[in-house]
Amino acid sequence: MPSIVWNFAKPALRHFRRQKLHSSFKIVGLAMGLAAFSLGALTAHVGFHYDAFHENSDRIYGLVQILPAGAQGQRLSAVTPGPLASALLQEFPEVEESVRFVPASRQIVRYEAKRFNEDRILYADPGFLSFFSFGWKSGDKATALADPASVVLTETTAVRYFGEADAVGRILIFPDGRNRAVSGVLPDVPFDSSIQFDFLIPLPPGPEFALNSWRDDSVSTFVRLKRGLAPAGLEAKFSGLVETNMAGRPESPKSLFLLPLTGFFHRSPDILSHLNGNSPVELYIALAFGIIFLLLVVFNYTSLSIAGSLDRIKEAGIRQVVGSGRRQLFGQFVAESVFFAFLAWALSWPVYEIMRHAYASLFGEAAGASLSLPGHPWIVLFGAAVTIIVGVVSGLYPAALLAAVRPARILKGDLSSGKKGSRVRKALMTVQFVIAIFLVLSSIAVRRQSVFLLEKDLGFDRQNVLVVPVGPEARDAIEPLRNALLRQTGITHVSGASFRPVKAGGQARLLPEGAEAGETRLVDAYAVDNGFLETMGIQLEAGRMFSRDHADAGANRWILNETAARMLGGGSPLGRRLTVNDQTGTVIGVVRDFHFKNLIFRIAPSVIVLEPESNRYLFVKHAASLSAAAARDLIERQWDALAPHLPFEARPLDMIFEEAYGDMRNVSLMFGAIGLLTIAFSCLGMLGLVSFVLHARTKEIGIRKILGASAPRLLGKLLTEFGSLVLVADIVGVIAACFAWARIFDLYAYSSKIPVAAYLLMSLASLAIVGLTILSKTWSAARKNPVESLKYE
User: Fold this and answer.
1) Model pTM?
2) Among positive and negative, which fits the CA dihedral 286, 288, 291, 293?
């Protein structure tokens, strides 16, 4: 067997030595394609297998309520009543285990002189650690959450507070005044987990979470079913549970259903949940671009193989003359293609690591670490299988071409293969440029969308605003801090709110006075302080703002956005009585529509309520003449004077938006780099095919010159022939990009369009690149002495 392999490898190595540059282009190009494909495939695999690392993940389901929503029909919520978990375990033998958890709001946690704002705190049932598979580092896992005064930390959090010292047994002070002893340390929560936390605290009974009330939705409830049981059979029994325990609620669920744990990350955006989630669109894009780039380099590999076969014409002829059969020749050339493909496969893994680190620099170290090869060894074998397929497919055409032509023609250097072969070569060239143009236009589209989202008028001013988190511990300092800041030169407005834009607000039930209960509507609700709307530059359309001069009370004054005012109908809403949740009040103002939520959604009807006691963030507006850094220093000095025992944070609001939508800009950079590579590879492939065509048409060019054709005329004919292919590629690539990105951007409530100028520029650029690429080859052929052309054979 080794001798057989060597007999195939020896001619391939000989050919590599003769054409080092040509072969290197082939191998490096294919290596980059295999690496890009592997990165895209692994990104999609990780994304579509969120939470699959949990043991028995296929048997774990979350409870989702289908709740009435008045005139809007229904809404879905994975936030459930506290007693539901125990009721499921007691009443249904299909349920093997149940668990509850709920994230806490931002808190200040202290250890000695260290103080940190923490917003990844999770309260959970004692069985949480055995229900889910988050690993374990130190402490007794079985009893870690048994004591209500205990806390479990992730490894990075433990190092942040205690350094390299053993964390177990050390005491952390929480804002509720309770000292909690560290009972265990677990590894950092995996990147591909929709449940994220740094602190794990036993879920306490008490009014804060209303764990004993069927009327209050507060926790996430998950169950593990017994083996072999289908969720549909259990869901059919939920109606009795709802009727018995939830019928007396203001909003009794229509029904309950089970959502697989592995489906939570990519759940519908209509499902309210404590778990992280995201659209799967980016994963489809990553996989699609990996496949597209791989196809491109396969076409390039094939094109260069065809061009490289020119140097092996006589070798193929002599082999046939001395007795080699066509099948043997065919097998030899295909085997050589596979051999070169495996050289590319070996090179693709260091290339993959370079790409992975570049990916990590764009999307974060955790995202890059989740794509490491040691964590996914199957991708190496998968890459080997793809390599074999690529090697065989890429080598088929040149192998068939060399093996099929008769020895007499080959020895004369005639490698023409008729119209059929010409069509294949032209198709290869056209497809390469279709892919290149599609990817470059895609990078333009994503770039424009990211810029569009970052620069869109959202109905408020996000420039020159600093956002300062304030927890319950800083409540007493808020008013003195506001007054102190307003006395500082350069600070123009200071106000507070319970939310931060992008991840903003909650929902409320709105019912106009005199309307039927079935006319209740869900609206977005925003709790703010006096002066917030002025601080954010939200324009008043009618009525008035909240004001201390009017002694407004949060329970009886509402401000609506324009969409909510239109929803009510019947003229001006000013003075109308509305019930929001369980509180009835009067509309005092209407403001211009604003967009505090993710831009994947359209502006919803919104109600603004005055609740200074709910402030979790201060918004500080500073003059344009004062830099963000200087404003931050000024705020920090006042903070340290009033609350020196509390940690200070402040971030520009525009930076928060940049982080929220900056990934799209990073994706556009990635696509742009891929687009440039595709253009480069397409040009290499075109050079190979042009060389092949000119080689086959040497005599034709000589005869045309003898008959009077000038060199410029021949050059124009050749450029027109190849340019027409690129023009077809332009048209197909533009149509494909328009169709694909129009469908993708339909998922956003607001999207940009690729301008016509971009299409024209891309077409002109591609034609110019083609012209420059083939100019050197065609010009030398057109100027060649016709005598030499006719003596070519």
Assistant:
1) 0.76
2) negative
